[in-house]
Design a protein that fits this description.
The protein has about 160 residues and is of the alpha/beta class. The chain contains five helices and four strands; from the N terminus they run βαβαβαβαα. The chain has helices at about 50-60, 80-90, 105-120, 135-140, 145-155, and strands spanning about 30-35, 65-70, 95, 125-130. The protein is globular.
Length: about 160
């Protein structure tokens, strides 16, 4: 792993407290987990550095302290690592990355991720992004407090 993409890789440290609070539950800090594949560790028809940069740009659209991006590789113990990650924080929303749904991993892996979220983060909304840069919009569909952030980053 090189220094330029460390923010996109699995982190042993829990995320910093979010700076945005939920209007639906006053005082509740927002926390969004974006789950995806590590483009440097999965073989694919993509340029891993370009994909990582685009993912980073999408992640950068979130308010500071709200998002943690969690990418995994094909040799990771997904069940154990994901259960641990989901238990670290009371996630407001979990965004399941598009790459998990379009054939980068087998369908049973996608199912495993969705069911792990249901089991280990039962209070979290589950959202699905459509592009590498619209994870904020995906989360905002289920977390109204993020809608204003989404509108600010897409305004002309």
């Amino acid at each position: 792993m090189n220094a330029s993409d460390t923010d996109l890789h699995m982190s042993a440290q829990p995320p910093r407290p979010a700076t945005v609070t939920s209007a639906a539950t006053p005082g509740q800090r927002l926390s969004v987990l974006w789950i995806g594949i590590d483009p440097h560790r999965f073989p694919g028809p993509w340029d891993a550095d370009e994909l990582a940069a685009t993912l980073s740009a999408g992640a950068g659209r979130f308010p500071p302290g709200v998002l943690e991006t969690w990418l995994f590789g094909p040799d990771d113990d997904l069940e154990e690592l994901l259960a641990t990650k989901l238990a670290e924080v009371d996630w407001t929303c979990v965004v399941v990355g598009r790459g998990l749904r379009v054939g980068a991993v087998p369908l049973p892996v996608f199912e495993q991720i969705v069911n792990a979220v249901r089991q280990h983060a039962p209070g979290a909304a589950i959202a699905f992004n459509d592009t590498l840069t619209d994870a904020l919009e995906a989360a905002a569909r289920w977390v109204p407090a993020l809608a204003q952030s989404s509108e600010r980053t897409t305004a002309p």
